[in-house]
């Protein structure tokens, strides 16, 4: 029996028994009194564009936490109020302002690093905690009211950089690709920081257009240029449709070496789309040449919290959970913990203070805790794309590092 089938069987059995057996409130399934006063939580996510799929995952993760607890957090009935994130600082600020008028106790979500940077001052001035579940640029410093349950964007590059330094010869050429913008710059900086210890990256990064709908030729020119230098490996930072198109075009241009990337490359529906290639070409090339990613989560992690979360997610949404959904689920979890600590009628400022006191979090990713920069100190995992049954899957190979 493959792992995916096993998780599907767990989902078919339901999650009530598993959750009740854990008993700590982390996996409570709604047996709360609901005696607390109603609260509102503002959810900032994109409803369209290239990041919509990530926004949907974030929404699903938070809603799943509420569903397993009778639509309550810490005994309070919860209304989740969505607001359109957009792609710019201006659209992000408009979302924050609208949610503040709704008198929300806390904010969550945010996919785009540009939006997160743009709303920083608005959140800090409002003194309402934001538990971000995706965007976490390295430039976001000195905040008091912004917490993240994801990671700092340098970390996936750093985790892979140390791994590649040990795996590859010092003379190896690594072709580096990513989209233009702060996100890819952070990832590449993390790679450089960990890899260049006694050696150096010989190739300059190639940053490509950040297109919502990349054409079948968008990456062909930059790829040909890089392949002309005969790289031994490719490192790249893409997600969603960009990830699918980049990998397909990389193979179409004749590359037959290993690919390394932050796990966003193969999250969500990307593997399904790569599995749909003509006569299975992309699947065969991935299996023959290797595609390995670093991420803070995989749906096949074997711990109690993940067995509950992953089986419930599959049963509810008929798909495997991603790191985006997991981080949003954890955002609801830490908000639950903080509100319990803050008391019966908490203010946003009391909740924010309590977030610094919650200690270790028993998460589907494994145990983690907030560090001084309000981001998780957590494990990073090496995942390899392999056939699991009849489908391509991200399979955890080992732990890479603890960062944060």
TrEMBL record:
Keyword Signal: yes
Signal peptide interval: 1-20
Leucine-binding protein domain ranges (all copies): 38-389
Pfam families for the chain: Peripla_BP_6
PROSITE patterns: PROKAR_LIPOPROTEIN (PS51257)
Keywords recorded for this protein, A-Z: Signal
Key word Translocase present: no
Membrane-spanning parts: none
PANTHER family registered for this protein in UniProt: LEUCINE-SPECIFIC-BINDING PROTEIN (PTHR30483), PERIPLASMIC BINDING PROTEIN OF ABC TRANSPORTER FOR NATURAL AMINO ACIDS (PTHR30483:SF6)
Stated family: Belongs to the leucine-binding protein family.
UniProt name for this protein: Branched-chain amino acid transport system substrate-binding protein
């Amino acid at each position: 029996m493959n792992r995916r089938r096993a998780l599907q069987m767990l989902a078919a059995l339901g999650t009530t028994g598993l959750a009740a057996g854990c008993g700590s409130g982390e996996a409570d399934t709604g047996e709360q009194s609901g005696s607390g006063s109603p609260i509102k939580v503002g959810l900032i996510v994109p409803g369209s564009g290239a990041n919509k799929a990530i926004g949907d995952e974030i929404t699903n993760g938070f809603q799943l936490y509420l569903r397993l607890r009778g639509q309550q957090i810490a005994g309070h009935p919860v209304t989740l109020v969505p607001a359109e994130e957009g792609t710019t600082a201006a659209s992000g600020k408009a979302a924050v302002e609208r949610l503040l008028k709704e008198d929300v106790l806390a904010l969550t979500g945010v996919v785009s690093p540009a939006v997160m940077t743009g709303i920083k001052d608005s959140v800090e001035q409002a003194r309402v905690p934001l538990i971000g579940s995706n965007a976490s640029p390295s430039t976001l410093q000195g905040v008091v009211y912004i917490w993240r349950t994801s990671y700092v964007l340098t970390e996936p590059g750093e985790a892979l950089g140390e791994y590649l330094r040990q795996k590859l010869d010092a003379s190896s050429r690594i072709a580096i690709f990513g989209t233009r913008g702060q996100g890819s710059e952070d990832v590449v900086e993390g790679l450089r920081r960990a890899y260049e210890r006694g050696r150096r990256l010989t190739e300059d990064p190639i940053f490509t257009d950040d297109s919502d709908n990349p054409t079948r030729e968008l990456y062909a020119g930059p790829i040909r240029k890089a392949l002309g230098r005969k790289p031994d490996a490719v490192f790249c930072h893409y997600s969603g449709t960009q990830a699918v198109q980049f990998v397909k075009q990389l193979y179409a241009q004749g590359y037959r070496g290993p690919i390394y990337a932050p796990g966003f490359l193969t999250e969500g529906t990307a593997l399904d789309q790569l599995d749909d290639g003509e006569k299975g070409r992309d699947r065969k090339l991935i299996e023959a040449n290797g595609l390995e990613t670093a991420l803070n989560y995989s749906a096949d992690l074997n711990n109690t919290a993940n067995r509950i979360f992953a089986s419930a997610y599959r049963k509810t949404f008929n798909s495997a959970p991603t790191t985006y959904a997991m981080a949003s689920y954890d955002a609801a979890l830490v908000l639950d913990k903080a509100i319990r600590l803050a008391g019966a009628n908490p203010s946003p400022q009391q909740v924010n203070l309590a977030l610094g006191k919650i200690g270790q979090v028993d998460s589907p990713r494994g145990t983690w805790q907030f560090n001084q920069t309000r981001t998780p100190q957590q494990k990073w995992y090496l995942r390899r794309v392999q056939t699991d049954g009849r489908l391509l899957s991200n399979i955890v190979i080992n732990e890479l590092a603890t960062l944060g």
